[in-house]
């Protein structure tokens, strides 16, 4: 039977990635060149530096992905690329590379929304069944997405201020932990207990999120301790922050599961790598909602990669989503 191979490119933030994916669920190759070590020195992603490194790396990453899959660009059916959201200069590099390949090899060009990629990364674990509820938690997004059917996205709720990954990174910075802070807080919280009371977020929408009050609460807590010359345990503070942040996530997810009764619950985005969130979803929520299949992608497909863009690109291609050479990067594009 004829298969469909998608060559996918992702460069929205600080990973330069190329993958080749067959039929949306089989990874023939997936190469990720991370820039974390460079940005660590600055305590966060420096957009100018990130786009320059993407330009330096993209050809090598492409070559490696083709070599690992033992394919040439001739062999693929379409070129998919992250069009947005993300950092403008970074997105441009991927989009320009994809346009060049599509033009040179006369292949269809398929623009992909970064978040649809995170959601469809779950397709590498199991066949997606609709309706489903997707919890998107990353450095730039915190959203509850309801998908009544394939390629239909309805945003039920989103963050009113910071994304959850952003809050993890900022709290890590005040605890003097290196970038990216999420995995550091994850590790440190395991050594602590949720002993400190931090502000519970208030939101307007039924399914909305808020993390900036919690983040400020952590800053104020540290300030107060310094002023009163009291000591605190960083591990307990990391654990208290994490429990408060994730409690909000779990409450909104459970509320949406009660109301929408989906067949599956998917978790998507970099924060899906968090060990506490994984156990809350795969153990607590899965036990409470036995009739709903709870899915979290393998660790390497939670953070940014191009295989997920290949998975979403395959569905987009099946739905006839194609762009011409006027395609441009869109840093703030809607799902
Ligand atoms: O999806 P992603 O790689 O990039 C964006 O699209 O934003 O997500 C990156 C975010 C960062 O904020 C990072 O700190 C967070 O995911 N992250 C984690 C963990 N691993 C990555 N947050 C909490 N616990 C983790 N284990
Ligand atoms: Zn991402």
Give the tally of β-strands. 10
Strand content: 15-25%
> Widest sheet: strand order?
3-2-1-4-5
User: Quick one: CATH class of the largest domain?
Assistant: Alpha Beta
User: What's the CATH H-level superfamily name of the largest domain?
Assistant: ATPase, nucleotide binding domain
Mean pLDDT: 95
Q: Termini distance?
A: 32 Å
Task: Pick out the low-confidence regions.
Answer: none
Overall number of domains: 2
Order of helices and strands: EEEHHEHEHEEEHHHHEHEH
Helical residue percent band: 40-55%
Bound molecules: 5'-O-[(R)-(carboxyoxy)(hydroxy)phosphoryl]adenosine, zinc ion
* Assembly annotation: single chain
Count of DSSP H/I helices: 10
Structural class: alpha/beta
CATH architecture of the largest domain: 2-Layer Sandwich
Largest sheet: 5 strands, mixed
What is the overall shape?
globular
Q: What is the CATH topology assignment of the largest domain?
A: Nucleotidyltransferase, domain 5
Q: What is the CA-atom radius of gyration, in angstroms?
A: 20 Å
